[in-house]
Amino acid sequence: VLVNSGSRHEAKYLSGISHFLEKLAFSSTAQFGSKDEILLTLEKHGGICDCQASRDTIMYAVSAEARGLDTVVNLLADVALRPRLSDEEIEMTRAAIRFELEDLNMRPDPEPLLTEMIHAAAYRDNTVGLNRFCPVENTDKIGREVLHSYLRNYYTPDRMVLAGVGIEHEQLVECAQKHLLGVEPAWGRGQAADVDRSVAQYTGGIVKVEKDMSDVSLGPTPIPELTHIMIGLESCSFLEEDFIPFAVLNMMMGGGGSFSAGGPGKGMFTRLYLNVLNRHHWMYNATSYHHSYEDTGLLCIHASADPKQVREMVEIITREFILMAGAVGEVELERAKTQLKSMLMMNLESRPVIFEDVGRQVLATNTRKLPHELCALISQVKSADIKRVVTKMLHKKPAVAALGDLRDLPTYEHIQAALSSRDGRLPRVYRLFR
């Protein structure tokens, strides 16, 4: 079951409700007395369960033998619509969230933190810029009343999709009618009063967190102290036609860590490997990411290096952004398109991925584009399309996230100036010595 609800809908609520719902999923319900009872029921059909909350979707998923379809749909309906949310479960969830937040700040890999920061910088205080994780100060404020009020507004039939893979469509429809139609949710049948339909407003901006990164390593070999920078620009939503050229561009940029093993298939011919990691031995990471939602998107590059080389690292990244709008070689473009197609096809060999693909597409558009249709669209991308989408993207203000020792970080105005210049170079800084 996928629900069109996530941290982006929490503007009128306490931040962190989706995080709570994710952790509370598959606890006791109207039919099942405890989490253990749910797991035992699934075990009879060789089943496993999981819940994931993102910025715009909450997904309750079960994988089990096809024979157990009726049981599984019944269980999913109960978990999504009739959770008990007992005081004890809410208390355990608070503890789990506090532990997770502590763990996030101690992890050597700052990726989740940087992703939060770049979204907060790009969409200041609105929709997808709202925090996906529950802030520590809110853990004690979220209780059953708050959760029910939120669920009443967002867990409505028009915002839910039941998706399945490995079963006949008619069977699934039959089960849905039996277990989901006319169910009285735990929060009653009140009318959804306050649904947030606001569209993402891209603001651009900078979010900086000064943090001592010298002791993040675990184990005997210390990880060197690094400063992490992420620079992003607004791309487009996954409903727009330009989404495919942006996906090809992201594949063309590629990148990864400097110690990433693997041959050409791993992306060793991508621009961030060839132009950045191969030429600047002191850079530890340069990776391109593309986040896309139904009303906006964000293309960003994450780079990390020693704090003394922050300025140089930022300039290398801004130059890569400017070079995106330049000439795109035929071989390079074909390679990126082929890689994107092979990644798409390889991912869609996995049933959980097919399930998520079907669910998300139907939730957003009421239809599903099949893999061969997507491959045909990828094949049609020309170098002129890449140049067009990049030129449009470079007219926006940048979003910047910076974590670590930031003494040598260029100012936001300088980063903006570099992205508006012809060569991507930062303005010169003259230091006065007395």
From TrEMBL:
Q: Which UniProt keywords apply?
A: Membrane, Mitochondrion, Mitochondrion inner membrane, Transit peptide
Can you quote a single GO CC term? Answer: mitochondrial inner membrane
List the subcellular locations.
Mitochondrion inner membrane; Mitochondrion matrix
Q: Name one GO biological process term.
A: protein processing involved in protein targeting to mitochondrion
Q: Which GO terms describe its molecular function?
A: metal ion binding; metalloendopeptidase activity
Which parts of the sequence belong to the Peptidase M16 C-terminal domain?
Answer: 142-340
Signal sequence span is none
Gene3D superfamilies to which the protein is assigned, alphabetical: Metalloenzyme, LuxS/M16 peptidase-like
Subunit description: Heterodimer of PMPCA (alpha) and PMPCB (beta) subunits, forming the mitochondrial processing protease (MPP) in which PMPCA is involved in substrate recognition and binding and PMPCB is the catalytic subunit.
* PANTHER family assigned: METALLOPROTEASE, MITOCHONDRIAL-PROCESSING PEPTIDASE SUBUNIT ALPHA
Summary of the function given for this chain in its UniProt record: Substrate recognition and binding subunit of the essential mitochondrial processing protease (MPP), which cleaves the mitochondrial sequence off newly imported precursors proteins.
Q: Which family does it belong to?
A: Belongs to the peptidase M16 family.
Q: What is this protein called?
A: Mitochondrial-processing peptidase subunit alpha
